[in-house]
Amino acid sequence: MILLPALVLSAVEIGLRLCGYGYSTALFKRMRIGQEDFLVENDQFSLRFFAPELARTPGPIRVKPTKPAGTYRIFIMGESAAMGDPEPSFGAARYLEVLLRERFPAAKFELINVAFTAINSHVIVPIARECAAYDGDLWIIYMGNNEMVGPFGAATVFGAKAPPLALVRLGLALQETRIGQALAALGRHLRAKSSATPSWGGMQMFLGNQVPPDAPARETVYRNFRANLNDILRAGCNSGARIILSTVLVNLKDCPPFASVSNTNLPAEERARFEQLFRKGVTLEGQGQFAEAARDYEQAAKLDSLTAEVQFRWGYCLLQLTNNSAARPHFQAACDLDALPFRADTRLNGAITDRARQWERRREAGATGVVLFDAAGWITNADSVSIPGQEAFYEHVHFNFDGNYRLALGWAEQVARLLPAAMTRSAAGGWASQELCERRLALTDWNRAIVVEGMIRRMKQAPLSAQFNNGHRVAALQSWVGDLRRRMDAAGAAQAREIYLDALRRAPDDYCLYENFASFLVAMGDVPGAAGQWQRVHELIPQDYLADFRLGGLLRQQGKLAEAQAPLLRAAALRPFISDPRFELGRIDRKSTRLNSSHLGI
Question: How far apart are CA 331 and CA 308, in angstroms?
């Protein structure tokens, strides 16, 4: 009786696969590039975790399936901060690559960044298990910011909120089958009939998903994170890789909580007293009377200890009184109590520390090792900053150029301790300066301006725009852009061009360099030159949507309509949910129609 349904299901599964239905759930796929086989990113990997309209994708990956002899292979795992958002070509992983290459010029390093936006430990578990098959010497894990807001988090917009881990794993296993994928697609289709089709909207998508600091769903998230982290470490250690497990650094000092919730059980009289104290504290703070404001916030917190904004403002007042040691716990409490939890909190970092120590004990017993790296302690101590803030971050978790360099330098120190002696014998002095790293990465004022202007646009969107200090942060970024623009003259452009060309001579297969050089050439009005750079990007990573889209658009601008169609059609096929390539194709069709009509005398 059981055999017949199993046979039917097997037949349906085989039939769906033969018909080409569904998608591969692997992170990597094989591709022939030139005369060689490579592993590249599978853009459909994340469809088990996100609806197609919301799906995030890994950045471009280009790596040999078999590690070249003498190469030290490093995998970087995590979320958007580890990816290097807002511009991965200047993220911590890229700085790390330069630091290692400059310090150990005779060694060969291969860094593979498999981190990407909006994911969390539920997504990183299968990533880790797949990476385990590709002979990594070292893994660097930097994750924890998205546990509450990513897939299966307590505040997620991507599906079920904080389900038990067993249910998560069952659902993901089902979607490895074509039958499971078909059922998931049917469920999305039925839900779409009663609601608007979702689209990616950044952090503002989560505004309606506040989760109180004492919500039971948070406890489920913490349990799931610990279990997922353990599975990730097990996969890495069983593969023979060493692992640097990093705590997660977040902006405490200059990032107010995104949302505060109050104790709903507070009696009316105490609630009124709390509101009075809070409003009075805000007024005194605005007048610069920080000691008096701090006392009012302290009294308010005694009435309602769950309000994140009270903790943040209390900490700010103490900071203005130069009482940094007293201020820090309140900034941390504001992060931990945030009802829109986009940052790793004390519990998550505590889990990272605990798991690392457990695995360190196994190393002492002879197992392959896990090394704990305290990112927060490293950066604050190295920069003599007791409370992390805008010195390292743009907003809540994403590092600025200085922060990415500092994090990479901390990673590099750990990596150097783990390298085989044969690789370190030819070490060349100390670590490269930030200035040298940025020259090797071809980070010019043109790139800086693009990144900072993008951050200004982001800061003007909710929930960042609602933070009470956002005006000051945006003004500081605008001032930065102004300074950059004043240096972007003819002499600066000539110097920048030389920086790009020098970097490309040193790393002729670095597609990031070609991308950024193309952006510079567009700004200089050299459209044909920019198209040539994007053509080179396409040759290096032909699976990349952006290379095709940019190349097609630049060819259209030059009037090369027939040549533009092929890359734009490829881009449209790679990203069917993005309308931009089809819009460009429509412009080509209209232009072609006008040209033909003119030729015919119509």
Answer: 9
Question: Rounded to the nearest 5°, which phi and psi values hold at 293?
Answer: -65, -40
Compute the radius of gyration of the chain from its Cα atoms: 26
Q: Residue 264 pLDDT > 60, yes or no?
A: yes
DSSP track, 152-211:
T-TT-SSSSSS--HHHHHHHHHHTTSHHHHHHHHHHHHHHHTTSPPP---GGGGGTT---
Half-sphere exposure of 209 (CA within 13 A, CB side): 22
Residue 88 and residue 113 in contact, taking contact as beta carbons nearer than 8 Å: yes
- How do residues 425-447 score in pLDDT, each as one tens digit? 888 889 999 999 999 999 999 99
Amino acid code (one letter) for 116: F
pLDDT tens, position by position, 152-210 = 999 999 999 999 999 999 999 999 999 989 888 888 777 766 565 567 778 999 989 99
Cβ neighbours around 457 below 10 Å, total: 9
Which of 389, 411, 333, 351 has the alpha carbon at shortest distance from 144? Answer: 351
Answer yes or no: pTM beyond 0.85.
yes
User: Which residues, at least 6 apart from 488, have a Cβ–Cβ distance to it below 8 Å?
Assistant: 445, 446, 449
**Predicted local confidence at residue 193, as pLDDT:** 64
CA atoms lying within 13 Å on the CB side of residue 93: 30
**Dist. CA 58–CA 85, nearest whole Å:** 12
Q: How far apart are CA 423 and CA 410, in angstroms?
A: 19
Question: Can you tell me the distance from the alpha carbon of 376 to that of 483, in angstroms, rounded to the nearest whole number?
Answer: 30
